[in-house]
């Protein structure tokens, strides 16, 4: 079965020091780099997703509820939108980056697109064009964008595994709910996530 690795949102704003930091984010970026260095040949393709916000409307709020509204993060052209330096070795193997959320909230990498030959190509199409049948999902945050990406991957028909040792969750309660939802939708879970307070 042809498998791809999907690396979700390893951006500065989601790591320590960022505007929407997840505890353990920088460490997860380092561990993903180590994993990719050892396992790149196990995958037919390696891709990454990125929040890429310009004017996402109500997604940003000065008094966020951390459910539907959030502090400003990953704005186009800012350091916060860049990939964390600890992920640099992983990105030597990344073939395409799928940016999401330019003008609206977007949690799943399957809402993003890359540009090829001046055409916007969504993630599902890109994977199918390369005969990918299965995906492993890693990154930040387990309970938000990793969750949404894995659910959409399964819905799109890909055999989906979340490598939890290579994810970081925001909070124990939301991470537990996300893992239960993923399991209920036949997403395979392996390992234990890093979870913030």
Task: Please explain how this structure is put together.
The chain has 197 residues and is of the alpha/beta class. The chain has a single domain (3-195), classed as Rossmann fold. Helices cover 27% and strands 25% of the residues. The chain contains five helices and nine strands. The protein has helices at residues 25-39, 88-91, 123-129, 142-155, 172-184, and strands at 3-8, 45-51, 96-100, 113-116, 119-122, 134-140, 159-169, 188-190, 194-195. The strands form two sheets. Strands 1, 2, 3, 6, 7, 8 and 9 form a seven-stranded parallel sheet that branches. The chain has a two-stranded antiparallel sheet with strand order 4-5. Strand 1 (3-8), helix 1 (25-39) and strand 2 form a beta-alpha-beta unit. The chain is globular, with a radius of gyration of 15 Å. 49% of the residues are buried.
Which helices and strands, and how do they pair?
Blueprint lengths: L2 E6 L16 H15 L5 E7 L36 H4 L4 E5 L12 E4 L2 E4 H7 L4 E7 L1 H14 L3 E11 L2 H13 L3 E3 L3 E2 L2
Parallel strand pairs: 1-2, 1-6, 2-3, 6-7, 7-8, 7-9
Antiparallel strand pairs: 4-5
Structural class: alpha/beta
- CATH class wording: Alpha Beta
| CATH superfamily membership | Isochorismatase-like
Task: Say how many strands there are.
Answer: 9
DSSP strand content: 15-25%
Q: Give the overall silhouette.
A: globular
Task: Specify the biggest β-sheet.
Answer: 7 strands, parallel
> Whole-Å distance between the termini?
38 Å
Number of domains: 1
H/E element sequence: EHEHEEEHEHEHEE
